[in-house]
Amino acid sequence: MLKSFDEAITEAQRLTDAALRRLIPESEAPEARVFEAMRYSTLAGGKRLRPFLVIACADLFNVSRECSERVAAAVEMVHTYSLIHDDLPAMDDDDLRRGMPTCHKQFDEATAILAGDALLTLAFEVLAEDKTHRQAEVRSELVLEMAKAIGARGMVGGQMLDIWAETHALDVPEITRLQRMKTGALIAYSCAAGAILGRADEHQRQLLSAYANNIGLAFQIADDLLDISATPEEMGKATGKDADAGKATFVSLLGVERARDQAMILVDQATKYLEIFGEKGNILRDLAKFVVERRS
Ligand code: GRG
Known about the structure:
296 residues, Farnesyl Diphosphate Synthase, two-stranded antiparallel ribbon, 15 helices, binds geranylgeranyl diphosphate
């Protein structure tokens, strides 16, 4: 029987949390503090959107949950590392994340840097382990594509551009490139990972990649809209910081109405790429809508 969207996202959250608890054990060793900080930040909640994408895309190809939940947890580790480092005084200097003190506030700066580093490294360890997929070729592709998505040509490069944008006025194509790298690349990897695990053919991979690129941008536009309309309580973090810093966003460049329309167009386009998956694509269709309708 096909699951409802709410059941599917709750299940993905449960699987991801359980995998994270298993993969980041508590420690009694003198270095326990770094494990504590890793668990603190990864288990602090969050929508688990990226793990959900991994699991939902892998489900299209009937991948076992033992495999997809490990990749989902690895993606969430990378996402959490990026949040921990983004919150540091040298970057955004934020006090609140997921409704709780940021990692460096709860622990200290050095511990937060190390917890981020350790999560990033552990993610690659998990992807490379036998349990993630019995075929070494699949594991190697998961590792390679992750490295490409989050390095200087992907997420880290996007973050560098974001810092550069503090002193340079960006136009819409430039903001689009920045966001594709900063947030879009890990979202795209989440979908690609499901297809890699499922040994999808080239056509299926291209369709999922096009779907991911569209929802990645829609996600960012929705985030820009929430940044000016939602409360810090709803978002679990400070809001309005881009506007205060005079930074260009999709909303500042397009205006609220056009930004909202553009997000809806991207969601419509995204769902068109799912046609070949028939009913099995329903969860991903609902997920595309959730990305723009969410309140946090
Ligand atoms: C490598 C330091 C470093 C940063 C990489 C991705 C990134 C750049 C920084 C993360 C900070 C940030 C505000 C990114 C914008 C994208 C965004 C809204 C992230 C929050 O993702 P959600 O909404 O968060 O999925 P939850 O808490 O639900 O997981």
